[in-house]
Amino acid sequence: MCVIIDANRFAEAVAQPPASAYRPLIDWLLLPRSDGVAVFGGSKYAEELRRAPSAQRFFVKLVQAGRAKPIAGVDAEADAVRARCVSDDEHIVALARLSGARVVCTEDGDLMSDVRDPRLLARPRGRVYRNAGHRALLHHDAGCQRREARGRHRKRA
Ligand SMILES: [Zn+2]
User: Fold this and answer.
1) What's the CA-to-centroid distance between 137 and ligand 1, angstroms?
2) CATH classification (class only), 3-147
3) pTM exceeds 0.85
4) How far is the CA of 103 from the centre of ligand 1 (A)?
């Protein structure tokens, strides 16, 4: 599934080099022969990126490479799900619901609860990426933006 990186992980994930826990995730997004895609969107995520210049530069690079996709309508969806979220990261839940992304990179316990709540994210269930042992989560599936956009699973040459 496409990934969503919680702002609380920007410092470790986007560092040069990335923390070892995030190396497989960053490789999946950056290496030419991999096919990772991150999704982002909404005014809160934009504000979080503005406060983290290195993460903002990272996303600019990903967008230019076709490896990050902006998602529309996140603010309205966040408003719609806020009351059902334990965390204050309803924008992340909204991003997942709208995009089909189901892997969220976070260390926030409340957001983990929301990501794993089938009343918020289902078909498939949301998953949390926390360390290199979770590299098996880094793939696309039928609900993905990339899958929809390309019509089939495809590796970059
Ligand atoms: Zn995907």
Assistant:
1) 10
2) alpha beta
3) yes
4) 9
